[in-house]
Amino acid sequence: MTMEGLQSVPDVGVAAWIAPRLGGPVGSVGFVVPRGYPAYARVLHPVQAGQGVGVTTWARVCAATGRVPHALMQWLRITRPVRGAGLPTAGDGRWSEVDVEPGNLEQGSLRALLDVLAASTRGQDCLHALWDGYGWAAMIGRSTAPAPVLDEALAAPRVTLPGRDYLLFGGRLHAALHIGDQVTDGWVLPQSPNLLWPADRSWCLATEVDFDSTLVGGQPGLVAAVLAHPGLEAWPVTEDDDLSALGDRVNS
Question: Which helix or strand (DSSP H or E) is residue 186 part of?
Fold first, then answer.
């Protein structure tokens, strides 16, 4: 595993503010990213399309399948074509040539999002929390990071939140781009942080392991910049919005 630019943070008390601000039904925005921010954005994970399929956004998937793009659309719903769409489908009825990756924001989109967040971070160090269920303990022997970083993180207390435990690291904002599984010397599988926030807590990013989108809570100006970035497909949401499989009531 590679953790370039990050160090283990043994004092998980710096994350104690998060749990009291999580709430609402499982699958809601405020169950994943802390409540109390004045604005929120949902950043959709990029579409992975088969060769020759010219679809790059969820909106274009909707155009092809006859579904309706909206802030709470769910991938499992919009990829089920309406009758007569003429698209190849898998056994579950979904368009078989497109997919998205849950729990991980692709590097290009992550970089674009970090660039937007940088203006509000103002050079502060950030806290990077990673779910401890990725099997990293078995990866220590092939890590390119100094062994103490991972040894200390695995030995340290976990950040415990509803349903998930996390390893905690500290470092600069863009160090989030250097997290991943070092499969071989020249092959890294990137993994975006599941939680990320600056020291002053002015914003917070959350990527739930089972979600196909990344959430950002912060000030209205920051969220507006996320929504306006041409490299991101993002929608405004509220802390009570339902992003569970049942949340898409338009594309039923």
Answer: none
108: part of which helix (H) or strand (E)?
A: helix 107-121
- What's the pTM? 0.93
Q: Under a CB-based contact definition with an 8 Å cutoff, are residues 85 and 64 in contact?
A: yes
Which residue spans within 185-233 are E strands per DSSP? 187-190, 195-198, 204-206, 213-218
Lowest mean pLDDT among 12-21, 130-139, 162-171, 236-245: 130-139
Q: For the packed helices 107-121 and 220-228, what is the interaxial angle rounded to 10 degrees?
A: 150
Q: How does pLDDT run across 186-201, given as a tens digit for each residue?
A: 777 899 999 999 999 9
User: Cα(187)–Cα(198) distance, rounded to whole angstroms?
Assistant: 29
Structure tokens at 25: 């039904």
Nearest to 225 by CA among 67, 114, 77: 114
Identity of residue 153 = A
Residue 222 pLDDT exceeds 70: yes
- Cα distance from N-terminal residue to C-terminal residue, the chain: 41
Identify which of 132, 107, 114, 117 has the alpha carbon closest to the alpha carbon of residue 201: 117
Phi first, then psi, for residue 44 (nearest 5°) are: -75, 135
How far apart CA 181 and CA 189 sit, in angstroms, is 5
Cβ contact 14:195 at 8 Å: no
Angstrom distance (rounded) from CA 30 to CA 246: 16
Structure tokens at 250: 């338009």
Q: Would you call 215 helix, strand, or coil by DSSP?
A: strand
User: Contact, 168 vs 153, CB < 8 A?
Assistant: yes
